[in-house]
Amino acid sequence: MPDDEHVSSSEKKTIEEKILDVSKHRSKNSASLTWRDCIKKIWKDDPLICPECDHKMKIISFITEMKPIEKILKYLGLWTE
User: Fold this and answer.
1) What are the residue ranges spanned by the domains of the chain?
2) Residue 32 · residue 47 · CB < 8 Å
3) Which of 18, 35, 17 is nearest to 26 (CA)?
């Protein structure tokens, strides 16, 4: 964003008009309450609470390709053919 001293008043108004309030925006990458509540209801555990330290976790990525999923599960000894 340019310095105030180098921007005309008409440009300032244009810049200010482009500012959006995103304080209530929910990322589409975050888990929906429905998904979380469904897991909690079935398994009686919150899927976003760490079972080791009880701190809240957040989803940072989804793996959708089979090769990395297989590699991770094999490493953990959880892969079955």
Assistant:
1) 31-81
2) no
3) 35
User: Distance (Å, rounded) from C-alpha 33 to C-alpha 48?
Assistant: 11
Terminal CA-to-CA distance of the chain, rounded, Å? 55
Task: Find where tokens 């309450």 sit.
Answer: 33
Q: How many other β-carbons are positioned within 10 Å of the β-carbon of residue 25?
A: 8
How many Å apart are CA 40 and CA 48, to the nearest integer?
10
Tokens of 71: 């590699």
pLDDT at residue 55, as a whole number: 94
- pLDDT score of 8 more than 90: no
Q: In the predicted model, what is the mean pLDDT of the chain? A: 78
Handedness of CA 80, 62, 64, 72 (dihedral sign): negative
56 has which bridge partners?
49
